[in-house]
Amino acid sequence: MKSVVVLVMGAAMGLGGRANPVASNYVASNVTSAAGIPRSQRVEVRWVKDLEREGAARRAAGWQLMGSSSFSEVAAPGSWRIETQARRVGADVVLAVASRGRRQTDDFKLTQFDDRQPVYPQTSTDPHPPSRVVETTVSASYQLVRFNFQFWRKNVP
């Protein structure tokens, strides 16, 4: 049996190649934006449990909040996406937290070409009968994760 299944779940669930969600959801704080930092400079990305507490500690230590980014996805963005945005806004450190988001269900149409079930009666002598097209709807359920990022820069006296 030959069957070809056409399914575009990845793109529908937001896993396809698209704009950087960290950058596209970035909101600058009310500070004057610093110039970007060199690509060679290391950016620290710290995954924390309590973003508010960690942010307050940074502020008390003289750090400046450059901005933040929040969005929901099924998987964490690659570290290069986080670091790229940090360099763009001049941040030295990114505080990150992930929390359980909402559950989502999407329906996808599945198309299958089945050579076992010809469209016309079996009495035909055609060695290559046309394929029968079978369409099915499949439901996919997945858990979204809420990501929050804060971009910080050390104040230089």
Describe this structure in words.
The chain has four helices and six strands. With 157 residues, the chain is α+β, with helices and mostly antiparallel strands. It has one domain. Strands 1, 2, 3, 4, 5 and 6 form a six-stranded mixed sheet that branches. It starts with a strand and ends with a strand. Residues 1-16 have low confidence and may be disordered.
Protein traits:
157 residues, alpha+beta, six-stranded mixed sheet, 18% helix, disordered N terminus
How would the blueprint of this fold be written?
Blueprint (H helix, E strand, L loop, with lengths): L4 E2 L2 H4 L8 H4 L1 E3 L15 E4 L3 H10 L2 E11 L5 H11 L3 E22 L17 E23 L3
Parallel strand pairs: 3-5
Antiparallel strand pairs: 1-5, 2-4, 4-6, 5-6
Task: Give the integer mean of the pLDDT values.
Answer: 77
- Extract low-pLDDT stretches: 1-16
- Overall geometry comes to elongated
* Total number of strands: 6
What can be said about the biggest beta sheet? Answer: 6 strands, mixed
Number of domains: 1
Query: What structural class do helix, strand and pairing data support?
Result: alpha+beta
Helix share bin: 10-25%
Number of helices: 4
Q: What are the secondary-structure elements, in order, as H or E?
A: EHHEEHEHEE
End-to-end span in angstroms?
72 Å
Radius of gyration: 25 Å
Strand content: 35-45%
